[in-house]
């Protein structure tokens, strides 16, 4: 409990006032914090005994910004700009004491202080762009005054936090202080007083703006590059305009325009979608029935079985998280191949400047390859990534049951097999779960954690914690064929194949999705993943996909063979291929399908609505706990544009009534019962509600 209000404390160390924000977990600048800061700094101003002040935060970080949960609600005075203006005009030096991740409004607050000291390793940034916004409390005006408009634009448009060590020489921080931050900040304030340093305000600095004022060419080039990459995202041109104002307009005018742009973006569909994903991503890690206090088990050593495409990437994930890992293969040559691929992947990152050679050596050093299964005896978390064959997986798990130490988590990376059946081959099904990584496993952020019937809560908590340590986005899902992501993807693939048989071409289908915002369409994606993968699976099950399997039989496996649905002329750019067009038209004729023109609206609806419908079934069956979990899966695993908020969020925007009608129409036309609206979707549509409004209290109804 602070002395000003529950979130703000004002204390004194002689003539230095120390104002502390204490609003766990990240000191977000909610209304009470803003009001308390104004009150505290008015007292600082009026107290003749106070000569300088320190602004610090309790807990794990200096403020990480505005309270995002307040966005979309009526604005309550005072705003953050008023807080910053109060501090700036307090008439006494104010030193911000930074640690952790001062982000967004938190960093803007620090830029409004006269001086800044930081603990080593502090990372600052303006991540508003990731919420579809621009910094709205002077960030686009003050940061350019410290580091120049071009560099400020880069930081603002990337949204990524930057270590203060990289920004210190620009005066973003005045000192990096190891040791007790509060004491160091107080000492710094005393030094400012004793040296009679001026009351510098960032808003008054002009020196870093003069180059852009004389010649804005470099800024314009940087701005054009950002806008081009932004593919129509509104927040990016808004950032550009606002940063440009920093050198073209007086501070107050620039700040007023920044606020107007911020308010405009705040009500945009894009920002709403991105804020939804921010919270959904965090909520997805919560298991509704998990008792409070379910603690993750200790993970000191990892194990991976199979050094193929997935196993190698998973071993890298352990090493990237700083966990030593044993990688087991059947034979020395397969092991050598796997380890060589790992080294090559790391070396590529080093050559691109993403990792130091020293760090690469450290990580490679954490991975021990072996053909001796018994080497897994001391592993705490073992992930199996052998071929996708139930018999083999069962043998591996029976063996694991024999050698793994008690309490070790036994995980399978299966993409289709029944995790409960695998768990049943052990005497410890409570320790068995699925960790479904996405390819390339060391790159893709999504991690579906598959909860088996008997998986223990602390085993689940361990998998979630490990996923976070690996910098993944974990989502807990239930057992079913394809889990959440691939189960929905399957419906899209079926429909994509139908569309080309009915009259569209692969390039038309892909264009509808890339225009929607996906990085690539279903056919370019098949070419990337390899057409032969699905072909082999279907052959095993006695199934056939007309076009895909014809292409595979011709050896057109996709990018790896230089052709698939498209041709690849030496690069990765898909080029439409008349030969494929002929194959498709022949197939339509052979199957007696009258080809017709299909517009992009129909293509989009037929690709996306069946997925949403399957999402509704996934919710009904309890395979996903929340619609937001499905959205997170699609944003992080399949390139769903984050500014469209994921399939279930998107469905609510379009309206379930419309989607239900269209599904019924497509089901009647094709005779495919799978397209008929799922009961949950149909009910919500009748009630005029969306998935987000399907609250748990009426789920049972
Ligand atoms: N507002 C409200 N809640 C926030 C929040 C914020 N700015 N930042 C984090 N939280 C909440 C999370 O939702 C989570 O809640 P939960 O425990 O109930 O799920 C909790 O704080 C902890 O967050 P994380 O799980 O993300 O904790 P990490 O330690 O992994 O990460 C972080 C900490 C790096 C600070 C990360 O939370 C983050 O990036 N936060 C968002 C920062 C941000 O976007 N700031 C800009 C806001 S917009 C703004 O400031 C506008 C201004 O320009 C006017
Ligand atoms: P892969 O064929 O590239 O690698 C499998 C490796 O396991 C091979 O190197 C093989 O020698 C090894 N192996 C086989 N039996 C073994 C045993 N008894 N002990 C130790 N090693 C053994 O296969 P991939 O693609 O890595 O797939 C592995 C698993 O991951 C499968 O279950 C697959 O369904 C799943 N998966 C694959 C994805 C992908 O995109 N490739 C994506 C997500 C999951």
Describe the structure.
This protein is an alpha/beta fold and 701 residues long. The protein folds into 4 domains: 1-125 and 161-202, 2-enoyl-CoA Hydratase, Chain A, domain 1 (Alpha-Beta Complex); 129-155 and 206-254; 301-477, Rossmann fold (3-Layer(aba) Sandwich), CATH 3.40.50.720; 485-590, N-(1-d-carboxylethyl)-l-norvaline Dehydrogenase, domain 2. Helix content is 48%, strand content 11%. It has 28 helices and 18 strands. The strands form 4 sheets. The protein has an 8-stranded mixed sheet, with helices on both faces. Strands 1-2-3-4-5-8 form a 6-stranded mixed sheet, with helices on both faces. Strands 6-7 form a two-stranded antiparallel sheet. Strand 17 (567-568) and strand 18 form a beta hairpin. Helix 22 (546-553) crosses helix 23 (578-590). The model is unreliable at 697-701 (pLDDT under 50). Bound molecules: 3-hydroxybutanoyl-coenzyme A and 1,4-dihydronicotinamide adenine dinucleotide. 3-hydroxybutanoyl-coenzyme A binds next to helix 3 and helix 11.
Radius of gyration over C-alpha positions, nearest whole angstrom: 28 Å
- Tell me the strand percentage band: 5-15%
Provide the spatial order of strands within the biggest beta sheet. Answer: 11-10-9-12-13-14-15-16
In terms of quaternary structure, what is this? Answer: single chain
Q: Look up the CATH topology of the largest domain.
A: Rossmann fold
Largest sheet: 8 strands, mixed
Derived structural class: alpha/beta
Distance from first to last alpha carbon: 43 Å
Task: Count the beta strands.
Answer: 18
């Amino acid at each position: 409990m602070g002395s000003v209000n529950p979130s703000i404390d004002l204390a004194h160390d002689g003539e230095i006032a120390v104002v502390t924000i204490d609003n766990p977990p990240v000191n977000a600048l909610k209304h009470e914090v803003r009001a308390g800061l104004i009150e505290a700094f008015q007292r600082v101003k009026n107290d003749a005994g106070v000569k300088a002040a320190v602004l610090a935060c309790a807990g794990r970080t200096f403020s990480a910004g505005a309270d995002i949960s307040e966005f979309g609600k009526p604005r309550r005075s005072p705003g953050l700009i008023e807080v910053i203006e109060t501090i700036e005009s307090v008439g006494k030096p104010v030193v911000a004491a930074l640690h952790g991740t001062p982000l967004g409004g938190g960093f803007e607050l620090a830029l409004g202080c006269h001086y800044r000291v930081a603990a080593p390793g502090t990372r600052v940034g303006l991540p508003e762009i990731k919420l579809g916004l621009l910094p709205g409390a002077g960030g686009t005006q003050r940061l350019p005054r410290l580091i120049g408009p071009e560099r400020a634009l880069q930081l603002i448009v990337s949204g990524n936090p930057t270590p203060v060590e990289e920004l210190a020489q620009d005066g973003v921080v005045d000192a990096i202080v190891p040791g007790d931050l509060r004491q160091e900040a107080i000492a710094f304030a005393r030094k400012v007083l004793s040296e009679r340093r001026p009351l510098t305000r960032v808003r008054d600095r002009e020196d870093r703006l003069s180059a852009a004022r004389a010649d804005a060419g470099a800024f314009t080039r940087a701005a054009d590059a950002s806008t081009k990459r932004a593919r129509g995202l509104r927040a990016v041109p808004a950032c550009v305009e606002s940063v440009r104002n920093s050198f073209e307009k007086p501070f107050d005018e620039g700040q007023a325009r920044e606020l107007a742009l911020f308010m405009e973006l705040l009500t945009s569909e894009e920002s709403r979608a991105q804020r939804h994903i921010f919270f959904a991503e965090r909520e997805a890690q919560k298991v509704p029935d998990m008792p409070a206090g379910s603690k993750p088990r200790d993970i000191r050593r990892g194990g991976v079985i199979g050094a193929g495409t997935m196993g190698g990437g998973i071993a890298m994930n352990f090493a990237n998280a700083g966990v030593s890992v044993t990688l087991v293969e059947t034979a020395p040559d397969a092991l050598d191949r796997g380890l060589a691929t790992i080294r090559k992947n790391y070396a590529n990152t080093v050559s691109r400047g993403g990792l130091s050679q020293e760090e690469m050596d450290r990580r490679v050093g954490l991975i021990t390859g072996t053909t001796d299964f018994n080497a897994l005896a001391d592993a705490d978390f073992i992930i199996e990534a052998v071929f996708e064959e139930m018999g083999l997986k069962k043998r591996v798990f029976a063996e694991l049951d024999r050698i793994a130490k008690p309490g070790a988590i036994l995980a399978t990376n299966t993409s289709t097999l029944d995790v409960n059946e695998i768990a049943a081959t052990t005497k410890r099904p409570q320790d068995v779960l699925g960790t479904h990584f996405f390819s390339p496993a060391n790159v893709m952020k999504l991690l579906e954690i598959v909860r088996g019937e008997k998986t223990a809560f602390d085993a689940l908590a361990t998998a979630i914690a490990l996923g976070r340590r690996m910098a993944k986005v974990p989502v807990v899902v239930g057992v079913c064929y394809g889990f959440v992501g691939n189960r929905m993807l399957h419906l899209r693939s079926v429909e994509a194949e139908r569309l080309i048989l009915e009259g569209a071409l692969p390039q038309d289908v892909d264009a509808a999705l890339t225009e929607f915002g996906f990085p690539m369409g279903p056919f370019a994606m098949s070419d990337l993943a390899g057409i032969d993968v699905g072909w082999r699976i279907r052959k095993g099950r006695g199934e056939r996909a007309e076009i895909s399997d014809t292409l595979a039989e011709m050896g057109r496996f996709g990018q790896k063979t230089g052709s698939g649905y498209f041709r690849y002329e030496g690069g990765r750019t898909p080029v439409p291929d008349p030969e494929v067009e002929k194959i498709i038209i022949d197939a339509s004729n052979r199957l007696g399908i009258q080809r017709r023109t299909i517009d992009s609206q129909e293509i989009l609806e037929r690709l996306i609505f069946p997925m949403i419908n399957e999402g509704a079934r996934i919710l009904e069956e309890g395979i996903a706990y929340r619609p937001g979990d499905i959205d997170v899966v699609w944003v992080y695993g399949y390139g769903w544009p984050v500014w469209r908020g994921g399939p279930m969020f998107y469905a609510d925007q379009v309206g379930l009534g419309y989607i239900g009608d269209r599904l019924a129409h497509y089901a009647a036309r094709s005779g495919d019962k799978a397209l008929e609206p799922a009961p949950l979707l149909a009910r919500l549509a009748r009630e005029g509600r969306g998935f987000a409004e399907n609250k748990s209290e009426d789920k049972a109804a």
